[in-house]
Write a structure and sequence with these properties.
eight-stranded parallel beta barrel, about 20% strand, 9 helices, 10 strands
């Protein structure tokens, strides 16, 4: 049987401490946490280090944009990388850095090369993991990036974005990205907004059947975006609503 690892992002519980999130994850059988950070000043560093050492935190979520050209952003990236290395967290999540609608011109690839060279120069035991988000909200865009850079990166497949923003079928996105995917982000909604799992227009059953058919073995993260959308119900409700779909893989 594939070794599926279940977790959730702490953006789903912005009012909880990391300790509260950790305890809930164990109780709900979603033990892995994607921890959202903004820089090196993380108040619960000792607990984060323990979660890293226990392999319960594999990803720190940052807002770094790969194609951005900002010394301040690179300083933030360095701070986050040092925190990840200190806490034995193997991945730092990054975004693209501009809207999907913006022209994808050569200067953006130059910025990506510059940022990757900067990160490589840090020589830390941490990898960047690219989420299919903003300008990379399609698998085709991600593959074009890899071709231009002549290198690949691990990928978080945010299925909501490739389906609604990238307008790709799940099977097409999977086929293009399957060799790079380390984590699958799951949420529901429509182009009009987010909902509880099963209440929107995202084909969750199709997604989970696809992952089952393909023997996916990796992390699946419930990304309930309550930090940004206060109107959403609390995280436990999202976890309960996801249960019928989770059973497809359990």
């Amino acid at each position: 049987m594939p070794d599926i690892k279940w977790g959730f992002s702490t953006i789903g519980c912005p009012d909880w401490t990391l300790e509260e999130a950790s305890c809930f994850g164990l109780q709900a059988n979603y033990p892995l946490l994607e921890v959202r950070i903004t820089g090196k000043d993380f108040p619960e560093r000792a607990l984060l280090r323990r979660l890293g050492e226990e392999k319960r935190c594999l990803i720190l979520g940052t807002s770094f944009g790969l194609i951005s050209d900002s010394p301040d952003f690179r300083t933030m990236l360095k701070d986050c990388a040092l925190l990840a290395a200190d806490c034995a967290v193997p991945y730092i999540r990054i975004f693209g850095g501009c809207a999907f609608s913006e022209p994808f011109e050569e200067d953006k690839f130059d910025n990506a090369r510059r940022n990757l060279a900067f990160f490589d120069s840090l020589n830390l035991p941490v990898e960047l993991i690219l989420e299919t988000h903003d300008c990379f909200s399609s698998a085709q865009r991600v593959c074009k990036l890899f071709e231009k850079l002549d290198r690949t990166l691990p990928v978080i497949w945010d299925t909501y974005h490739t389906f609604f923003s990238g307008k790709e079928s799940l099977s097409k996105s999977w086929e293009l990205l399957k060799d790079f995917i380390k984590d699958v982000h799951v949420k529901d909604g429509s182009p009009a907004g987010l909902t509880l799992p099963g209440k929107g227009k995202f084909p969750l059953t199709e997604l989970f059947n696809l992952l089952k058919e393909q023997n996916y073995s990796g992390l699946i993260t419930c990304e309930h975006e309550k930090m940004w959308h206060k109107e959403l119900p609390d995280l436990p409700e999202a976890i309960r609503a996801l249960a019928p779909f989770k059973k497809i893989l359990d």
